[in-house]
Amino acid sequence: MTCKEIPSVIDAYLDGELSVSATLEAHEHFAACQNCRRIVESEAALHGLLVQAARAEPVPPRLRSDVLCNLHIGQPRFHPARRLVARFGLVSSFVGLAVLAWLATERLVPRPMTPLAAELASKHLLYGEGRGGALELVTSESAEMGAWFQGRLGFPVRLPSVARRPERLVGGRISSVADAPAAYALYERSGRPISLFVTRRVPFAQRGWSERHVDGAEFYVGSLSGVVLVWWEEKQADRLYAAVSGDDEEALVDFARLCVRAEQSRPAGAALPVRFAARSLAAPALRRRRRHRSVASRRGSAPR
Amino acid sequence: MSSREQADRDRVRRFEADVLVHLDDLYRVALRLTGNAAEAEDLTQDTCLRAFERLDQLRSPAAGRVWAFTILRSIFLRRIERQTRAPGADVIESPLLEAGEVLQDTYEALRPIQQTPLSEVREALDRLPLPYREPLVLAHVGGFSYKEIAEILAIPLGTVMSRLFRARRLLRSELREPARRTWSGG
Lengths: 304, 186
Description:
The complex is a heterodimer of chains A (304) and B (186).
Chain A: H1 6-14, H2 20-32, H3 34-55, H4 63-73, H5 79-86, H6 91-107, H7 115-128, E1 137-138, H8 142-153, E2 167-177, E3 180-189, E4 192-200, E5 210-214, E6 217-224, E7 227-234, E8 239-245, H9 249-264, E9 275-277, H10 284-293
Chain B: H1 3-18, H2 23-34, H3 37-53, H4 64-82, H5 118-127, H6 130-140, H7 146-153, H8 157-185
Helix pairs in contact in B: 2-3, 2-4, 3-4, 4-7, 6-8, 7-8
């Protein structure tokens, strides 16, 4: 191997990608040529620095336990059925069976969870139960928090004023929901965390949830692993809001209404119509009870 | 214990053995891709959640590492595509290294690179355009071979080599800048 060939193989040499014979040839050349040896030493130093720089970064000690904790919540329930469908192979059969499976799960089988519910509940437990440890900005000022979100996310996030309320804003961070960037604000009521997510609307998110209509607003409500979830949409701005807590449903819906009022109190000309909704992810019996209770306030819901 | 519970436990055990064993490297790669600890943690969480959901797609435990990093990159790219301002989504303005192009740097002019503080190396790495940063991070943080990097990034092997080569040259230039500023200031 000559000095002219060395620059084109030096990376592969240091990355261990050269063949054994080429590695030996390069090695022999470095032993004999001081100039090329200086080059390879300099390159090796750069390689070493990159590894050191990465390895010296501490990994959050709770990361592993957090991941494992969230797995149980996010566990899929219908994979065996999906696998069964996939094995049929032919595209026409696949499409036909998929439609039938969808109809069956939507109309006959109560879905115990949805990916959206699992993600929101997971992140609530991850960020909310840490009592502010995962927050990027700690503040009790709604306006400051909203401005911080807008600067990071590029869209306005109007947070409710909790001055005369039992809730207290703790802070927020940038998160994600359904792979889209999301604002995450953490509130506290009587020592219990309430998470508020603001992100873009999620397609077909309503499936599997039940609706509640309160004061003309439409909410989707559900519960999962002891966590209550309420979400609603602001269609014109393409936004989805979700509130999550370990409190009871009524308290969380009350907080959601506060958020809706904050959104509706935007300056004249900026007000946007809102459509809100909620679905029970709890046991079927509980869902039936809830439907019965709220029957007077419901409008036009299809029988199941 | 019901058969369902047993199946769940087996699934978690398999996930731990095939995917979660790479958690530290997943986080470190996420950190260098996002440049932010909170986002890296979020990205790692989402990657693990998706890997767990799709664990049945993993054919062999040996492929778990490449598979997990492919998922991580896929989620990362989707996020920066959806962000209105994507700081990592740089456009390559200069052409990739041509075949046969050789090193032009005069190594004698470089300050001893071993003395570079690690924080400076990280900052320089974060400033690299994404197409160069990705293979470099996968090679040095993930410890992947050229072939594995090509698989994760879905690009030809030759492109991996040329991007790595150019990435290191760019990084050298970045690391040299502070020294130049010091010299001119003195």
